[in-house]
Amino acid sequence: MTHKNFLRLLHANNILRATFNKNDLAKLRKKTGYTFSNCKKALEVNNNDIALAEKWLKEQAQALGWSKATKLEGRSTLQGLIGLTMSNESSLLVEVNCETDFVARNKSFVSFVEMSLDTCLKHCQQHSDSNSLAKINLGNKDLKAIIGPEGKSLADHAALTISKLGENIQLRRATYLKNPGNVYLAGYTHPSSEKMTARVHTGKYGSLVAYTSASNNSTVQQVARQICQHIVGMNPAKIGVRGEDEPMENKDEESVMIYQDFLIDPSVTVEQLIEDVGINIIDFIRFECGEQIEDVGVPVEVSQNS
């Protein structure tokens, strides 16, 4: 082989190798979501082995995420999302906070909220075997310790998300409700999700209602969901019991739910509405993103109501 032909062959091999590397780079970038420069570095370090490069990226991102999480820990997180997931047997509300509304709309942040919901739901289902209405409240420390995908804690997954988005992210709180067969659940997030059949709903506000009814038909279910909207909009402090709780003279200051004018139709009170439809409200939960709250308290608190 002449020297000229050898140089031509070497040049052709370099072109093929460069093309191969670019294909790997594109695959790794699409699979992991990390920057091209980071993916290129990962391939170089791991001799173009995509699997090893992906593992290396995750390790680097985890270390960087914890470093960033430590630096950003004290920064205010009043934005974020309330996540809601519901099934026939249980429902869960979770609040995840970040620093800006821009990040709250980011796909990576939304995905983290959805993953946290799924992980927390499975955790709560494993720790609730009551035949009565059961409630589990989880705070920041409890949520961070829950093990999620890949055997990593939610704190680890939060650190990974921080490394991608560069903002402080906090798993703030969650409340889980498990209902027995004679108790029904309704939920709502605002702004309302476009697809009401979706598995996960997110918004700036969220609410859950546990109720009983002789016939949980479509009308009752619709009213129950409207009551969830009322809870988001009117922020009642308690359900209320006639004879024990007295209505306020100024209706605009009313905090007892049964005495409040119904948000959807102010011509009736919530009490009149539920009597007409045949709903008995047992419990409700309301989350508002970034609101001031009392400490959740003990790691897992379970209360049962008949």
TrEMBL record:
GO CC terms in record: mitochondrion
PROSITE patterns recorded: EF_TS_2 (PS01127)
Translation elongation factor EFTs/EF1B dimerisation domain mapped to chain residues: 92-239
A Gene Ontology BP annotation from the UniProt entry: mitochondrial translational elongation
Keywords, sorted A to Z: Elongation factor, Mitochondrion, Protein biosynthesis, Transit peptide
Domain of life of the native organism: Eukaryota
Cross-referenced InterPro entries: EF-Ts_dimer_sf, Transl_elong_EFTs/EF1B, Transl_elong_EFTs/EF1B_dimer, Transl_elong_Ts_CS, UBA-like_sf
Compartments it resides in: Mitochondrion
Pfam families: EF-Ts_N, EF_TS
UniProt GO MF annotations: translation elongation factor activity
Family the UniProt entry places it in: Belongs to the EF-Ts family.
NCBIfam families (alphabetical): tsf
Entry function: Associates with the EF-Tu.GDP complex and induces the exchange of GDP to GTP. It remains bound to the aminoacyl-tRNA.EF-Tu.GTP complex up to the GTP hydrolysis stage on the ribosome.
Protein name, UniProt field: Elongation factor Ts, mitochondrial
